[in-house]
Amino acid sequence: MNQIKKAGVVGSGTMGAGIVQLLIQNGHPTVMFDINQEAVDRARTGIEARLERLVEKQKISVNELTLAKELLESTTDINAFKDCQLVIEAAPEKIGIKRSIFQQLEEICAEDTILATNTSSLSITEISGQIKKPTRVAGLHFFNPAPIMPLVEVIQGLKTSPEVTETLIDFAKKINKNPVVCKDTPGFIVNRVARPFYNEALRIMNDQVASVEQIDRIMKGAGNFKMGPFELQDLIGIDINFATTKSVHAGFHGEDRFRPHYYQERMVQSGSLGRKTKGGFFSYDE
Ligand SMILES: NC(=O)c1ccc[n+]([C@@H]2O[C@H](COP(=O)([O-])OP(=O)(O)OC[C@H]3O[C@@H](n4cnc5c(N)ncnc54)[C@H](O)[C@@H]3O)[C@@H](O)[C@H]2O)c1
Fold this sequence. Notes:
The chain is of the alpha/beta class. The chain has helices at about 15-25, 35-55, 60-70, 95-110, 125, 160-175, 190-205, 210-220, 230-235, 240-250, 260-270, and strands at about 5-10, 30-35, 70-75, 85-90, 115, 135-140, 150-155, 180-185.
């Protein structure tokens, strides 16, 4: 089994930064790469601030904080992945971007480096379709916020090797996650089950049956969900959530039960994307 000593993460947005935090907190030297220097700087500041809050809350020690900071290498040079045994891609949910990243990674990384994607809904088989050795590509799907949510989906593309799946299961356990193995089907498990949660909430709101606030309150109060469908879209990013719904819908060749709602598209067009833009279905001051 491939020993993962050093890991890499492509993209330092919401998920990339969360995955990096998780890895360094669990003692893995990690390279964090983004094409945008500002995104790298923002992610590093955010990770350090979150780790410092964990020290204040006495969840980690000052020594653990110092070590975690030392384990993080941030860069805008993709060649920094050359000595990683695992690279996890967390770039935007666009097939063209992901395919191009995987083609670059296979040129830079060693032949046995595992190339994983955090895609929410794109096909692993399609992402790895143009690379020379698709056996080393798999999905490693974390949930938001990555340092906290226990589940990780390990997704097998049509050509993913059983050894790669085994290594990822083992790695997920080592970073204190609960892995579940899934086939490469649209939305895998969680995002497929979750589509009606968002879509029906949007329909109920748009039909003026109940307001955004009421629906979230009911789902939390009566349904015992940690977050309502609107609060959760704001956390995930409404654009990301919309892209996932479109992709699951397309993956099922337009099955009507997965049809995206135009109101969500309007929110994306308006630029109100949730917490990251300080406004979505709810407002956020800071
Ligand atoms: N947001 C969520 O809740 C969530 C949950 C699970 C999985 N995902 C998946 O994780 C992935 C990332 O989502 P996110 O919410 O972190 O997105 P995001 O928009 O917050 O971050 C994407 C980052 O990728 C960078 N980027 C763009 N092109 C790049 C390239 N060619 N190389 C390297 N970096 C590049 C951007 O600068 C940005 O910092 C997507 O595939 C998404 O579907 C998201």
